[in-house]
Every structure is written in C-alpha cells, then in structure tokens.
C-alpha cells in the first residue's frame, strides 16, 4: 500500500514537471520582423524566427579579429553585410571581420546575454546605447572612430549620444517623419491646401468626414509599437517637449497635456481610425494606400511601402501641422557603438579601419539607399541629394528634426509610460492625471 | 551482480529524461529565481542581491493586480468553457454516424494550426475595416455598415477568450474521446436493463469513467492557458493600457520593452508559484477522489 502511494507521488511529480516544461515550450514567442523605418520599438508582425549570421571563419592565424553585431533592417541586410565582409577582408588582409546580422526582435536579448557572459561584441549596431553606457561598457566615440570619419557626421546626430559631455555612439542612419495626404480626397472634400495648423487640421477632418463618411480623415497610432511617436508629434508641435533645456523631465507640462488632449479629441470626434491603441503605423499605411485614411504622419519610406503593397495613391507631402507656428519633424536614428573589450593597439586600429571603410561615401550612400533610410553623414546626404531630388527635401527635414531623448537612461520607462498614458486617456481617463502620475514616477 | 543490475536498471532507463529535466527545467528555474532576487541592470548585468525588492515593487503597482485578475479570468474562462464544450463535442463524436471520421478530422484543425496564425486570422476576421465578418454580414444583408466588433478593451478580451476556447477544445475532445472509447459497452447495457435514463447513465457511468482523462486535460490546460502568450500578444499586445495583459504578456513587456528584467523575473516566479500550487492541489484532490 505504501509503495503504491510512493509510486503515485512520483508519477504525480513527474507529470507535473513534464506539464510545466510543456507549457514553457508553448509560450515561447517566436516572431521576427524587418524594419522599414528606424525607431526604438520592437515590432512583431511577422512570424518566423530568423537569426542570420554571415559565415564565421574561426581563428585565422595571426589576424586581428573584430566581431560586429548588426541589426537586420530589411530583407537584403544580411546579404549586404556578407559582401561587405568579403570586400573588407580582401582590402585589409590583416583583419578577420565577423559580422552577425540579427533581427530586431532578438537583438537586445542576444546582446544582453552576451554581455552578461562577458562576450560582448566589439562593435554593435542597434537603436539605443544609454543602458550599455550606464553600465560602463562602452568606449567614447573619439577613441574608436578616426577624426576624418567622425567629422562627416551631422553634429545634431552626434549630440543624441551625448552623456555628460562625451559622445558614446555614432549614428549609422536616420529617418524623419512628415505628413502625407491623399490629394484626391482632400480636393474632393474641398480642402484646397494641406492643413498647416491644428485648426486647419480639425477643419479639414470635418470636411472630409462630411463628404466621405467611410474615410478616416486622420490616422493615429497609439500602440505599444510606436505610441511614443504620436506623443512626440503632438507635444513638439505645441511647443512642448519631453525635457527642458537642462534635461529635466517635463512630461506633464501644460503644453504636453493640451497636445495630447487635442489628439484624443480628434479620436473622440470620430476623425480618426477606430482603434488607435491597436492599429499600428503599418495598418495605417495600408489604409492610406487604399484610400481609407486621408492623412497621416509617416516616414520617408511610405511611398516605397505603398508601392510594395501593390497600391497606388495620389499623395502629397507636407510638414506636420502645428499649434505654435513652427512645425517640428520627429527624427529617429540608430547607432554604432564599441564595447570596451580591452583592445590592443592593433585591434583599436582595426576597429577604426572598419568605420573608415563603412562610412566611405560611395559605399555608405549605397547602403543607406538600399535600406531606404536617410544618411547620417553630411557627405552621404550631399551625395544622395544630388542623385535624387525627392531625397533633397528629406535631407533638409532630417537636418532640422527633433529626436527622442534616448541618451537618458529613463527613456525606456518614459516611452512605455507615455504610451500607457495615451491608451488610458483613450479609455476616458484624464490626460493631466496620467501625465502627472508618470512625471512623479520618472522624476520623483 | 545480475541482481544488482536488475535493481538499478529502471533508474538507468529514466536517467536520460531526469538529466534532460534537470538541465532544461531545473536550471532555468534556478536562474529565474536568482534574477528575481537580484538587481539587474538594463543591459542585463546582475548587480547584486536585493532580497524581495523586485517583488515588493511589482506588488505595489496597481497594474499588477489588474493583470493578475485578467490572468485568472482568462484561465478560468478558457479552461472551464473549453472543457465543457470539448466534453460535449466528444460525446457527440463518440456516437456512430455517417461522416464521423471526417468530423473528427475537422475538429483537429484548430489544434493543428499554430497559435500565432490562429490569432492573426481571428484579428483579421474581426477587423472593422477589412474584416471578413463584416464583409460576410454585409453581403448577406444582415448589417448595412461596418460594425466595430472590438469597441472596448473588454470586447477585445472576450474575443481573445473566444479564440483561446476555440483552439483548446480539440485537445479536450480528443482526451475525453480516448477515455470514452475505453468504456466497456456492457455497463450501458446493464444500466439500460436496470431502467437508467440518459442523464443517469451520463453522470453515473460516463463522467466517473472519463474523469481521469478529464483530470489530465484540465491540469495540462490550466498550465498551458495560464502561460499562453501568442493569442493575446498577436491580437492586442495586452493593450489598451494593460487591460488585456496576462502575467506572461506583462512580464514580456517588462523585460523587453521596459528593460526591467529583475521585475519581470519576479512576475515569472509569482506565476510559477501560482501554477505549481493550483496544479498540485487539483491533481492531489482528483487523485484522492479516485482512490475513494
């Protein structure tokens, strides 16, 4: 009898353990995606897991090895890096370069795991740097980038990686946002010029809604994917900001509260897509492509996105409408950074060579163009602007846009916090109260 | 010598699975516990022991209690309703009728599809602007303009639960069906002879005899549904404002969106303990009942 009980207990615990492990298998998120725009969110639209790595050549006699982890921007990223690696090694015989291209969904986890096991890559290409800097893991940019290459970068871009007066990362590419509008719908509704102010925007929405009840006049995305972008569009164009000039958080400033209340008002008045907490920018871009959304704020990659989706729209582009006389575009940029792996002089030289090679104007512009972004170097910008007129306009915009305060370590919390505040406001809670709470949480 | 080998033989046979379990279950569990009790930097470095700081921080937020409540509603609703519906479906499929094999095959479909795909399809069906449900109803003339099927967070959550039930039913059905088929037909004959009606046969013969199958499916489902990530993540990502988050999606956001891996590990530990207690209690209770 006793034996029987023991068996039962054993069976029970074994099956329990098996069950838990089974459950663990079932709950692994397996998603990946490619980016058509650089930003600080992790999106998850696609469903296969994919970590592409270029061929690794293990220890090659006497050569200086450098390891790079690069973000996968699009379908061609991995192939581009493979060619780059081969070309680089051909031109620099003493260096063995290893580039690993990783999807946006996995890159942070991969890097964090390596860091935790003391296997940080030498060079990392990713969106944010402040967390690594806060742990003293990075080298100052001037240590690993030659002066010539460093001077190619837009000043404003370098400043985005400034912590306590030192630049810790260099930009690899950028993107900026503007308002796109459907010319046919605006014309049909009697809106003669694209709206430049908030009053004009409201008026245009009203006219469109009256004329085309099935069209959403204005697209808004307040999702976990990119809700922080909506926050930025409205506060920046109402004279507000995330921080003041000294870098103190000002999340609940009157301008910010008024700005978000205006955006929520547009939604409550029925001028926007129905579910801003769930409809991502990609959903909006699809709807814009089919003429369901009349106006939206989107990156420079929108025309390509619409074309790739097989849609055709008679669109125009204009500055983001504002409420205080100056339109501000939202810029996003990604970075290169160098982990402090106690390099020898040869290794340091090899890393500098890598950046010189990568940012060589022709090669660099080709890469930026291939990925569909905007260049982060002045020379690259000039080269692209000369080649393509529509690019020239964007290069002007990107030179003057504002960026998220990603150099601050609280950014991840602020980002999720403003998204949560927007979504709670959508559910009917007070914007003022939400932002007051967030401000108190971030800067107690 | 031979006797000795005989004695240890069973242990040798289970050794590989015990080792696998140690490596793939116990080690990660220990790691998660360690992380939950440590201060973890955003870059993932462990910066020393903090005791229960991560737990107190998590437990003090109003979001956590909302998420915990969501998790309970989600688990109870999905497991409860899918067990009931799956049981009924199994009874139906256990009858002899024409096309039974095809019917059984169809029941497997929702189970055989990846959850990510299922969730995406449900989202597509429900979509206000391009959804197939609205298109269908408009074509049939039942509605004349697109209906927003997900006007609120509660509506989203209800649809997620519906999707969860839909994909869980097949598992229950097949577990119960296998139990039903092992019941000897003579019990029913004897009961019929004694004048038992349908309900008496159902509750006095069928239910007690399939209860062990039901226990297995329920325990597995509790664990599986409690930890389920893909449906909620693909349909709403726990939005708006955490209203549709369960512990798993919440901890994923904490770890990979907010960079708070210590707190995420704490949530994970809390979930693990809840699950351990529930599953153990349920199994002990039902196995004891079986003894009586």
Detailed description of the structure:
The complex is a heterodimer of chains A (444) and B (292). With 444 residues, chain A is of the alpha/beta class. Chain A has two domains: 64-175 and 332-403, D-Maltodextrin-Binding Protein, domain 2 (3-Layer(aba) Sandwich); 176-331 and 408-442, Periplasmic binding protein-like II (D-Maltodextrin-Binding Protein, domain 2, 3-Layer(aba) Sandwich). Helix content of chain A is 47%, strand content 14%. Chain A contains 19 helices and eleven strands. In chain A, strand 4 (162-163) and strand 5 (166-167) form a beta hairpin. In chain A, helix 10 crosses helix 11. The longest helix of chain A has 25 residues, at 2-26. Mean pLDDT of chain A is 86; it is low at 21-59. Chain B is mainly alpha-helical and 292 residues long. Chain B has one domain (55-291): MetI-like fold. Chain B has twelve helices and two strands. Chain B has helices at 2-36, 53-60, 62-94, 100-112, 115-126, 132-139, 153-181, 185-193, 198-226, 230-235, 247-256, 261-291; strands spanning 38-40, 46-49. In chain B, strands 1-2 form a two-stranded antiparallel sheet. In chain B, strand 1 (38-40) and strand 2 (46-49) form a beta hairpin. The longest helix of chain B is centred in the N-terminal third of the chain and has 35 residues, at 2-36. The two termini of chain B are 42 Å apart. The model of chain B has no long low-confidence stretch (mean pLDDT 91). Chains A and B meet through helix 1, helix 3, helix 4 and helix 18 of A and helix 1, helix 5, helix 9, helix 10 and helix 11 of B.
